[in-house]
Amino acid sequence: YCKNCEKPMIATYTAKRGRRFRYYVCKAAQLNGYATCPTKSIAAGKIETSVVTQLQIALNSEKVRGQLSIPHDEWETSLKDNPASQVRSTVAKVSYDGISGDVAVTLET
Q: CA nearest 102: which of 33, 61, 51?
């Protein structure tokens, strides 16, 4: 989600010289023009790396793992082998602030 306008961010890509560049774009900016929202877009790798890093830090906490009912020995393997699945099962919301560059991850409760 775009923190500035609370609209979803949409995964998309552009292709240049045979390479594909993935990014997320604010839906409001996409629909209403990029001048309508300060977030605009962010490279997919940047936001995805931040989400996985924040998830790793959170799941290092025994308290958080207990709240999410995730055994200690399972989350590390799952996050390494299939990070998308682990993110989908434990992350409720990701918000990106296009002004500050902050990525906020809210876990399922």
A: 51
Tell if the pTM clears 0.90, that is, is over it. Answer: no
Q: What is the DSSP string of 45-100?
A: HHHHHHHHHHHHHHHTSHHHHHHHT--HHHHHHHHHH-HHHHHHHHEEEEEE-TTT
Least confident range of 32-41, 74-83, 95-104: 74-83
- The number of residues making up the chain comes to 109
- Summarize pLDDT for 79-96 with one digit per residue, the tens: 788 888 888 888 999 999
Residue 58 tokens read as: 């959170």
End-to-end CA distance of the chain: 18
Q: Which two tokens stand for residue 100?
A: 């500050």
Type of residue found at 38: P
Contacts of residue 20, Cβ cutoff 8 Å, sequence gap at least 6:
13, 14
